[in-house]
Every structure is written in structure tokens, then in C-alpha cells.
Amino acid sequence: MRRRNKSDQETWLLSYADLITNLLIFFVMLLSASELSKVKFQQIAEKIGGQKSEKSLSSIQDQIEVAVQEAGLAQYVSTQLTDQGLEMSFNSGVVFDTGSAVIRTEWQRNLEEVLQTVVPFGKDYRFAVEGHTDSQPVVKNSRFASNWELASARAMEVRLRLENLGIDRTRVRVEAYADTKPLPAEIVSGLNADEILARHRRVVVRLY
After folding, report:
1. Beta bridge partners of 21
2. Are 80 and 87 in contact (CB under 8 A)?
3. Cβ count near 182 (within 10 Å)
4. What string of pLDDT tens digits covers the 208 residues of the chain?
5. In Å, how far are 149, 157, 198 from 143, measured between CA atoms?
6. Which is nearest to 60 in space by CA: 70, 71, 52, 72?
7. Do 159 and 114 contact (CB within 8 A), yes or no?
8. How high is the pLDDT of residue 46?
9. Integer Cα distance of 207 and 114 in angstroms
10. Residue 72: CB partners within 8 Å, gap ≥ 6?
11. Which residues contact 168 (CB under 8 A, 6 or more apart)?
12. Hey, is 65 helix, strand or coil?
């Protein structure tokens, strides 16, 4: 009977060390993935796979932009992918009258046509509806005490449209920012004072 030498007896240690190393790598990858936003995670997956998923945020962005172009609303609706998700921004200067949270009659159909593009993804994502205002204070005797209430009321109006179109109310939240998140200077560059104010009076629907 051949006697086992020391190297034979320690072979299992190599396999054990490999296993521990692989487990460590696996948990490091899990930790890294947990710190990635959904947008970045999807972008990495698309680069690896070489194609977009029909339900990825970048694919949804493409569908929204097609709908916006077909409706002739490119100057009023814009989209942007951020670490927080896919943002669809409505220029409230045309959706709402100044100081009002009632959607203009002529805009209701256009608004719902654009919102309809995200309805098929209501079970895949959650939604945040952000209300923003310009820096002008609300007029005296207004039904809104401040821009905070006005921003919230506008966001609530758009949230209601999402719910009416079939988005589960438990998957939508409302956020109000008043004038605390002004648009970057490069976005409003070249616009006159009234146009800049109108661009800031916006509602943003964010998928995340």
C-alpha cells in the first residue's frame, strides 16, 4: 500500500482556498451591484449583451421620445437618464397657467398620450412625480400659501392622470421641490426671462 506523502494530504487545501476565493469574489460583486443604480446596471447589461432590453429604461426613453416627436411636443417634453432613473419633464409653463394647478384643457389629451407610453411598465418600475415652480412668489389671496403647495398640487394632478391610466396608486409617490432645484444654466441658455420662468415651472415623472 502506497503511503500518502504530505503534498497529497494537503491537496484539498488548494481546492478549499479556491472555493473561499470564489466566494469572496462573488460577495464583492454582489456588494458592487447593490451600490449601482438601476440605470447603470442596465447599461452594463446592455453593453455585455450587445442589445437593449425592451423594458430597460433606455428603451422606454426611446419609446417616449418617438411618441413626443409624433405628437409634435418636442419643445415641451424632454427626457433624461440619471442615476435616479428615467426623467420625463413637462414644461409646466404650457401645461398649467401661472399660479394654477389645473391642467389646461388643450393640454389634457397631449399629456395623457405621452403618459400612456409608460403605462405598460407600471409593474416593472415605480414612479415619482416631482412638482417644481419658478422663483416668483405666489400672488396674494392665492389658494396656495406658497410655491411648495403649488408644486405639490401640480404633481398631484399628474399623479392622478397616471392612476386614471392604470398605474397602481401604491407604485407612485409625489415630491414637491418648489424653486429649490433650478435647471442648469446650459439648459436655459439663450431663453428670455419669461421662457426661463416657464421652463422652471415643470412637472417631472421619474421611473426608477
Report:
1. none
2. yes
3. 15
4. 555 555 555 666 667 667 777 766 765 555 455 546 777 878 777 777 778 888 999 999 999 999 999 888 888 899 999 989 999 999 877 788 888 899 989 888 888 999 999 999 999 999 999 999 999 999 888 889 999 999 999 999 999 999 999 999 999 999 999 999 999 999 899 999 988 988 898 999 999 9
5. 9, 15, 20
6. 52
7. no
8. 79
9. 14
10. none
11. 122, 123
12. helix
**Neighbouring-strand partners of residue 173:** 128
Place of cell 401604491: 170
Cβ atoms 107, 115 nearer than 8 A: no
Cβ neighbours of residue 192 closer than 8 Å, sequence gap 6 or more: none
Q: Which residue has 415630491 as its cell numbers?
A: 175
* CA separation for the pair 101, 191 (Å, rounded): 24
